[in-house]
Specification:
Chain A: It comes from Kaistia soli DSM 19436. The complex is a heterodimer of chains A (about 280) and B (about 280). With about 280 residues, chain A is mainly α. Chain A has 13 helices and two strands, in the order αββαααααααααααα. Chain A has a two-stranded antiparallel sheet with strand order 1-2. Chain B has two domains: about 50 residues, no CATH class; about 170 residues, MetI-like (MetI-like fold, Orthogonal Bundle), CATH 1.10.3720.10. The chains are: A mainly alpha (about 280), B mainly alpha (about 280). Chains A and B meet through helix 1, helix 3, helix 4, helix 5 and helix 6 of A and helix 1, helix 2, helix 4, helix 5 and helix 6 of B.
Chain lengths: ~280, ~280
């Protein structure tokens, strides 16, 4: 019976487990990817500790997490609950459209926003500027770059949550809804006391996944701003990537990766507890 | 379930949902609109309708993004990944759905843990290891990486399909003298084939759209994926945004058409693999 698992496990161990263990080891070495690694103990972590961009990146990841725990989950819940009021055919149409941004490649979404919306030359922002509105490209300002990037990811993401929440809402037992109805509950009371408690496990799971994904965010930052201007939108994953492939400081990149994983690990612990309660 | 509400509530509902609709569609409309316009028209007003419908952007985009090569690379990569994930994943899901011993719990736990591992946790040693072995710019090697990343999701989803098959069907086959391999290939696989199709669609979507791994491991011009060659085209200085949007539309259109026709499969699959609440 183990034979059935061999291909999956072999690929997984070679691609993920062994390199992951090597990353843990590399975090304690100085290595440029070519010459022999030199053991430096906690040197990489000490270097990160006194590295300004590292702290900016960590802070940005935390801001990102807070943002994504609230805004898209709120939008998703609102839209999903409103879909319950709409006839079936209508709700399917809304769902399909809301889901479209999810299936478009991140590189394309990033470029559409960059060129067609934010750009001062070819974008809607530039057009509004010409009309005299005081509006600037958020990606070019240190104070707004991170939020400019987050907006794009938000657009790409909230439809997924809406669809998931809607699927969960429809599975809330009919008797509970009937009971609330007989008691004369309004739509909002229904949400507050019946529907939201009914899909609590799904909301919890999505919040845990949000924490994990918020520390993995890479594509949009890398494509839209490369972490700039002046590291203002840098996150840990782009920082690690830059350290490994641009600065050829693989040891520090590995140490950064460990920090990312640490945050993920806590969330993963809860994720596995919830998932395995359901499926094992 | 459907809630029936007053007229006022219903109006507000449609207004809010309509705002959502507009938000989701606005950038997509800009994409389509501007793919039909000249660079000059776009600078004048990105919101305006094209003065003349023109398709020359598409021809230039196809040539400049080398889609005749890169589309083929993406298709190969996607197909290989689908085959690898579906074959290895369905075998794994088959046993994980049937056995309830402690060791299987450990395997499930391990697979769940790897779904949430950041790519950066294994990317750097993997890259330098692949470089040493000469596996950079190798489409098959990248499809193995995708398989490792996506198969836990696929296994969790397929497992629910295997679990839904009544035990009696398997038992009857065993009584008839079928080996476990025969049970798997002749009896179970045909029954769970809708699940495999769903997994193939979603893994195909992920592989087609993937950026980080593709841009890291496939760098030589004749090995780029469509998405990465789009990324490089749109990153050049003298950017013609009409052409860039045309290139974007060429990549997105097949996916969107497929999605609209098979939306239930997509949505249920993506939701089912990550949520069981």
């Amino acid at each position: 019976m183990w034979l059935y698992l061999v291909p999956t496990l072999a690929i997984n161990v070679v691609i993920i487990l062994i390199p992951a263990l090597l990353t843990v080891a590399l975090a304690f070495f100085q290595w440029d990817g070519i010459s022999a690694p030199v053991f430096i103990g906690l040197g990489n972590f000490a270097a990160l500790w006194s590295d300004g961009p590292f702290w900016t990146a960590l802070q940005n990841n935390l801001i990102w997490t807070a943002l994504f725990l609230t805004v898209p989950i709120g939008m998703g819940l609102l839209a999903a609950s409103l879909l319950l009021v709409v006839p079936r055919r209508g709700s399917t149409l809304f769902q399909v459209v809301y889901f479209l941004p999810v299936i478009i490649a991140t590189a394309i979404t990033a470029r559409v926003w960059q060129g067609m919306i934010y750009s001062p030359v070819t974008g809607v922002f530039g057009y509004l500027q010409k009309l005299g509105l005081p509006i600037v490209n958020p990606l070019s300002q240190t104070s707004t770059a991170l939020f400019g990037v987050a907006t794009v990811d938000l657009w790409h993401w909230w439809g997924f949550l809406c669809v998931i929440f809607f699927a969960a809402l429809r599975q809330v037992p009919q008797e509970q809804i009937e009971a609330a109805r007989i008691e004369g509950a309004s739509f909002w009371q229904m949400m507050r006391y019946v529907l939201l408690p009914g899909i609590r496990p799904t909301i919890m799971l999505m919040m845990i996944m949000t924490v994990i994904w918020s520390f993995l965010v890479f594509d949009f930052v890398y494509i839209l701003t490369q972490g700039g201007p002046a590291f203002s939108s840098e996150v840990l994953s782009t920082l690690a990537y830059r350290k490994a492939f641009y600065d050829l400081n693989v040891g520090q990149a590995a140490a950064t990766a460990l920090v990312i994983s640490l945050f993920g690990l806590v969330a993963t612990f809860f994720y596995i507890r919830i998932q395995s309660r359901e499926s094992v | 379930m459907r809630l029936v509400e007053s007229r006022a509530t219903l109006t507000i509902t449609y207004v809010v949902l309509g705002i959502g609709l507009f938000t989701a569609l606005f950038p997509i409309v800009l994409l389509v609109l501007n793919s039909l316009k000249s660079a000059q028209e776009i600078v004048q007003n990105p919101l305006a309708l094209p003065q003349v419908i023109r398709f020359d952007n598409f021809a230039r985009a196809w040539k400049d993004a080398r889609f005749s090569t890169t589309f083929w690379n993406s298709a190969m990569l996607t197909a290989l990944t689908i085959i690898l994930v579906c074959s290895t994943g369905s075998a794994a899901a088959f046993v994980l759905a049937r056995k309830k011993i402690k060791a299987w719990k450990v395997v499930t736990f391990y697979l769940l843990a790897t779904t949430t591992a950041p790519i950066q946790l294994f990317l750097f040693p993997l890259y330098f290891g692949f470089a040493k072995l000469g596996l950079i710019n190798n489409v098959f090697a990248v499809s193995l990486v995708y398989t490792a990343i996506y198969s836990p999701f696929a296994i969790m989803l397929l497992r629910t399909y295997f679990l839904a098959v009544p035990k009696e069907i398997e038992e009857a086959a065993i009584i008839d003298g079928a080996s476990s391999w025969q049970v798997f290939t002749r009896v179970m696989l045909p029954i769970v084939s809708p699940g495999i199709l769903t997994v193939a669609l979603i893994i195909g979507l992920y592989s087609w759209n993937e950026f980080l791994i593709a841009t890291t491991f496939l760098q030589r011009q004749d090995k780029l994926t469509a998405v990465v060659s789009f990324f490089l085209l749109s990153g050049q200085y003298s950017s013609d945004w009409g052409e860039i949007m045309a290139a974007a539309l060429i990549i997105v259109l097949p996916i969107v058409v497929l999605f609209v026709f098979l939306q239930r499969r997509f949505i249920e699959g993506m939701a089912g693999g990550s949520v069981k609440g």
